């Protein structure tokens, strides 16, 4: 049994309690510092992640404001179109440019779609067709899936000249301006490898169910179809051309995509569902 002489004195007990309290405070302060550090690191990581996302989006969108004026791709025209003269060749045009400040304004009385530069091919010539499409448009993807091969066949036979006007109606629903970037990619392919235009366009629209593509994916798809245009796509070389095409479509009262014009007449799928029949009739009438 312990004696009174073996028990700690009051002073000793007080000193021990103070030491224990101090040890606890030191431990708590260390824990608080570690917690604060972890919180700060977490915030820093989150901020860096947001910054990285913003930077990635900016880069993906071809950073910087799209210039008002810019070059037209080979095979392109001053109206914003790219014209195929066969399934592997484009119109013989080069050295042109467009300026969105010169796109014009719509006349208040204009309500029906009227593509600028639209012409009717003379008798004995391939008929003229204008297609307004958006790479992010489901109905354009369906149209391409249904009629893309047939259009290629008409082109190969010399029965039609097809002008593609790639617009960006759906950019507002895309965080990366996919419609504009896709239009730029199509222009890049036209400029560098005309024979690759139709295969690349077909591949782009076939990809629609899988969602938007990054520039690197567009470039890889172009290369798979015979066009090495990664630099053109990354730089957004023809973004000004794409912007002009889209702005012109608004001035010209083009209401949606796909919009098709055959020999100067708007093709209405609701009243004339047999697209192939309508085109074949126009071809036969122009022979």
UniProtKB/TrEMBL annotation:
Q: Which UniProt keywords apply?
A: Membrane, Transmembrane, Transmembrane helix
TM region(s), chain numbering: 37-59
Renumbered to this chain, the Polar residues biased-composition regions fall at 101-114
Q: What is this protein called?
A: Thioredoxin domain-containing protein
Superkingdom, natural source = Bacteria
The segment annotated Disordered runs over: 1-20, 101-122
Question: Which residues does the UniProt record annotate as the domain Thioredoxin-like fold?
Answer: 127-274
What InterPro entries does the database record attribute to this sequence? Thioredoxin-like_fold, Thioredoxin-like_sf
């Amino acid at each position: 049994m312990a004696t009174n002489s073996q028990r700690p004195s009051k002073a000793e007990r007080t000193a021990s309690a103070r030491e224990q309290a101090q040890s606890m405070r030191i431990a708590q302060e260390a824990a608080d510092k570690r917690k604060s550090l972890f919180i700060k690191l977490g915030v820093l990581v989150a901020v860096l992640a947001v910054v990285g996302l913003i930077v990635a989006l900016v880069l993906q969108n071809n950073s910087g404001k799209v210039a008002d004026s810019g070059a037209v791709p080979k095979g392109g025209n001053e109206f914003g179109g790219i014209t195929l003269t066969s399934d592997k060749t484009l119109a013989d045009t080069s050295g042109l440019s467009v300026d969105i400040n010169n796109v014009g304004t719509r006349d208040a009385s204009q309500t029906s779609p009227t593509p600028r530069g639209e012409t009717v091919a003379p008798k004995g010539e391939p008929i003229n067709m204008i297609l307004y499409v958006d790479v992010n448009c489901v109905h354009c993807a369906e149209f391409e899936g249904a009629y893309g091969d047939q259009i290629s066949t008409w082109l190969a036979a010399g029965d039609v000249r097809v002008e593609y006007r790639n617009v960006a109606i759906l950019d507002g629903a895309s965080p990366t301006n996919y419609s504009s970037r896709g239009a730029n990619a199509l222009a890049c392919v036209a400029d560098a490898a005309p024979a690759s235009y139709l295969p690349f366009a077909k591949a782009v629209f076939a990809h629609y169910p899988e969602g938007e593509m990054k520039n690197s994916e567009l470039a890889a798809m172009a290369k798979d179809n015979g066009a090495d245009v990664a630099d053109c796509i990354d730089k957004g070389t023809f973004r000004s051309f794409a912007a002009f095409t889209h702005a012109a479509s608004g001035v010209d009262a083009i209401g949606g995509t796909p919009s098709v014009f055959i020999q100067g007449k708007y093709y209405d799928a609701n009243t004339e569902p047999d697209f192939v029949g309508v085109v074949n009739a126009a071809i036969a009438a122009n022979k």
